[in-house]
Amino acid sequence: MRLKTSHLKEPKHILYFLNSITHKELVSCVGWTTADELYSCSDDHHIMKWNLLTSETTQVVKLPDDIYPIDLHWFPKNIGGKKQSQAESFVLTSSDGKFHLISKIGRVEKSVEAHCGAVLAGRWNYEGTALVTVGEDGQIKIWSKSGMLRSTLAQQGTPVYSVAWGPDSEKVLYTSGKQLIIKPLQPNAKVLQWKAHDGVILKLDWNSVNDLILSAGEDCKYKVWDSYGRLLYSSQPHDYPITSVAWGPDGELFAVGSFHTLRLCDKTGWSYALEKPNTGSIFNIAWSTDGTQIAGACGNGHVIFAHVVEQRWEWKNFEITLTKRRTMEVRNVINDAVDLLEFRDRVIKASLNYGHLVVSTSLQCYVFSTKNWNTPLIFDLKEGTVSLILQAERHFLLIDGGGIYLYSYEGRLISSPKFSGMRTDVLNAQTVSLSNDILAIKDKADEKVIYLFEALSGKPLGDGKPLTHKTEITEIALDQKGLTNERKIVFIDKNRDLYITSVKRFGKEQKIIKIGTMAHTLAWNDTSNILCGLQDTRFTVWYYPNTVYVDKDLLPKTLYEKDASEFSKNPQIVRFVGNQATIRRADGSLIHLNISPYPAILHEYVSSSKWEDAVRLCRFVKDQTMWACLAAMAVANKDMTTAEIAYASIGDIDKVQYINSIKELPSKESRMAHILLFSGNIQDAEMLLLQAGLIYQAIQVNINLYNWDRALELAVKHKTHVDTVLGYRQKFLEDFGKKETSKRFLQYAEGLDVDWDKIKAKIEMEIAKERERAAATPAVRASVTVQR
């Protein structure tokens, strides 16, 4: 990926003197109205409009000679859920201590005395309901939409050079010398402050999508921080101070400007491209609304434009490169065949996965099959600025400023999920996940909540209740294979703990189980439900994450771990296709890790119920990890014969004995219940026994688990075996030399003598009744295999 830069031979911002001598005046700020129209302001007092489609430059207005512009920010387009096609007004800060509200046609609607000394920066919040300004007087002020002062948020002893709103518009980030400060709008809320640079901080930016902070200073470095003030990346010192930084709209890229320097960087900090244009210092950088191009305000009077080109997408044997704004090159690395894809409009976003290339331009969406590049399916977009494309095997997702749209690969609109307070402008690949049947979206308003939707209907899943965690969630991912009722979602929370849970939401609260710690990136495999992630200094593969719901003790035996210290600090998993995981290091280089192909083959055999083939495969590989995976898979699928073989192979003799005891149980309901008990599903096991009328067996299960209160509750409710419960309870207390203290047990024990002969006779009678019932049932093969 690189930048293709351009600027006019002669600058448009020139100051003319009476004797016809011209002087190039620095351009102080720039701002885009649409993806093809830019406004620029300069010390020559002119506001210029640049049309990139016609290459025309026109003067919008000449400001009074005492107004020297410093910063410009367009009023946001998304207001109250309505999206305008383009911005209609902007705020302009100036050196005379005022800010000016100016319409698109150049009319100054209002000028407001704001600060003593220059107003160094001004920013609208994301809703357009408030404006923040900072100045040389060290004050940070909040204003209403109409320019009325609401509050003075803070007072510093030094000039405040830059300011940004937090993603939720509830906090403000600003500079104070070498310090960065995050101050909430609430009066008594905690203020976060830290030393960020060794020199004065000149510029900062806070992205609403990835929640990361950029800072740049006179120490000639730019840095990336998270919203808690933790350093994620620090650049090497440049030759000159960094005078501008700006995030791309989707939070995947950012641009850095300095003297004769323009740099394009990944969100993790490493540099894609470095350009050395003859521009002087670049004082201000603005990204176009579609994220395809950059404009820079230059010290020598120029406005520099840079287009992002040569993005690359890879999938299996295909490599696709955006060679020009409207041209892609497809290369098949197996036979070196090359295809050129031409588009009518410039390419904004693209995604390559599951045998399809999906490309969005400014007006249309193209869907190519990797089997035929010549005949794409084309349909018009409701709104051109697509911010995210996600693919699953059967369909794909488009997100733009207007909503979320799910399309089939034939171009048919499947659904358009919605929830209250939805903000599509802050969604990215870490907060949205798509599978063949489920769509998961992390809420931005409450970051502990994940909304789940049926992909085909767009309706909330199950009972409509979202999945809720105890702390804020940072990244989510749905598994891609298997049945809908077995679908799992994994997520990382702000403590970097990794959790897994089922997406089934029918009244009963699903267990959320922790399976990893210090995790910061993860990915599901595209062909089987194998998960990989980076935990601190280890690369970990969970060959069968569902093990935690079957047999927790087995989970460590189903993992593959590798030392990840060679990947340097903060590596990211790019993709996990087939048996290869691709990881990007902090310096931008890619590392390909191959994992064993056998677990994926085992998944395939189990999904097809080829248990004998699965056993043969494990015997061939002779790996304890494979046997552990097979044991968990067999129990999950209720195939106890295979489970017995697998547990025996890994030496879990106690579990083999328990499986044998299950096989000796007389009725299939009892066997099913004990298989559920084996997996720790006590409530389900009890419910199954009660539904089958096996009251004594349900009571005995609770006695065996020492759930005394529940055992007594069942006995009293069904008016049977109260003496049995009291007898076992009495024996339990005698063994430990303790006396009964429970009022409930004392109440029922009054006047009741425990007769063990009578209890044993009743138990034998219950077992005989169960055997007779099982014998009377037609000898059909149960859904559970419990015999050799």
Structural features, described:
- Its main location: cytoplasm.
- It comes from Chelonoidis abingdonii (Abingdon island giant tortoise).
- Keywords: Cell projection, Cilium, Cytoplasm, Cytoskeleton, Repeat, WD repeat.
- It is found in: Cytoplasm, Cytoskeleton, Cilium axoneme; Cytoplasm, Cytoskeleton, Cilium basal body.
- InterPro entries: Beta-prop_IFT80_2nd, TPR_IFT80_172_dom, WD40/YVTN_repeat-like_dom_sf, WD40_repeat_dom_sf, WD40_rpt.
- With 788 residues, this protein is α+β, with helices and mostly antiparallel strands.
- Helices cover 18% and strands 40% of the residues.
- The strands form 16 sheets. Strands 1-32-31-30 form a four-stranded antiparallel sheet, with no helix packed on it. Strands 4-5-6-7 form a four-stranded antiparallel sheet, with no helix packed on it.
- The radius of gyration is 33 Å and the shape is elongated.
- It starts with a strand and ends in a 12-residue tail after the last helix.
